[in-house]
Amino acid sequence: MWSIVLILAAVVPKISVTVEGTTVTIPTTCQDDKLTNDSHNAALWMHNYYRKLLASGWAKDPKSKGGYAATAKRMLELTYDCTGADNLAKKTYALIEGCPGDDPQPSPGYSLNFKRFQNYNVPEQDALEESIKEWWGQLGKTGLGSDTSFKTEIASFANMANDKAEKMACAVKNCQKEGYTLVACQYSPAMQADEKIYETGAVCGGCKAINKACSNPRGLCV
Q1: How far apart are the C-alpha atoms of 136 and 127, rounded to whole Å?
Q2: Does 69 reside within a domain?
Q3: Structure confidence at residue 218 as a pLDDT band (50, 70, 90)
Q4: pLDDT for 180-217, tens place per residue?
Q5: Residue 184 lies in a domain
Q6: Is the dihedral of CA 184, 190, 194, 200 positive or negative?
Q7: Which residue among 99, 111, 175, 211 is the one 20 to 30 A from 204 at the CA level?
Q8: What is the CATH number of the domain that holds 88?
Q9: Which InterPro entries does this one have (predicted)?
Q10: What is the pTM of this model?
Q11: Distance (Å, whole) CA 191 – CA 214
């Protein structure tokens, strides 16, 4: 499990998240996804961590000659959408709130990653983290190579790595009566089947054109 430490603040609670020696502090303000603060913030951190790994050329890809996926020219930093009455966090929770037996469809205009555990008592954060790792793991198992076009066999990875995605939200539902645990994450805007997952090029080379700066460490347009 990722290392997460709660930090109490006078006005807005925050948590410190550490992955492989890198620590960030993120405000915790969302209620609509029904997640604990730790789970909510771990989801956001993991997504941006993986996106930065890919964008900076350190994501392993068995189809690439050098063993790593090509760097990304303009990989946006994701933000967690929990603002407004009809936000993405609320929509995502609504998809699994009733413990559906069939896999849900994404909300209109969004991409959806979904996982069903055949166990109703999987801890919330464990379920979320395992799902995110599995979705991203499609890159390491199937590979991408020089063609970064969308492919159905890596659809979950593509949703996470879509360089046009700006917002995300996740939800977890333990369904005791039904005997399973559901995990869903949605992304905006949606990944289109005829699009490239991301544009290759110099790291952060396209950030300035969209009035963004390059993150430190380099990788994401922020």
Answers
A1: 14
A2: yes
A3: very high
A4: 999 999 999 999 888 999 999 999 999 999 999 999 99
A5: yes
A6: negative
A7: 111
A8: 3.40.33.10
A9: CAP_dom, CAP_sf
A10: 0.86
A11: 23
Per the domain annotation, does 17 fall within a domain? Answer: no
Burial 51-74 (b: 16+ CB within 10 A, else e): bbbbbbbebebeebeeeebbbbbb
pLDDT in tens, 141-189: 999 999 999 999 999 999 999 999 999 999 999 999 999 999 999 999 9
Nearest CA to 77 out of 183, 202, 201, 210 is that of 210
First-to-last alpha carbon distance for the chain, in angstroms, is 27
Q: How many CB atoms lie within 10 A of CB 203?
A: 21
∠ CA 148-152-153, nearest 5°, is 90
Indicate the number of domains in the chain.
Answer: 1
Range of the domain at 107: 32-210
Amino acid letter, residue 40: H
The 10s digit of each residue's pLDDT in 20-61 is 555 555 445 578 888 888 898 899 999 999 999 999 999 999
Q: Which residues contact 33 (CB under 8 A, 6 or more apart)?
A: 40, 82, 89, 90, 92, 93, 169, 170, 171
User: Which helix (H) or strand (E) covers residue 158, if one does?
Assistant: helix 155-161
Structure-token match 């360089």, residue found: 163
| Domain assignment of residue 8, yes or no | no
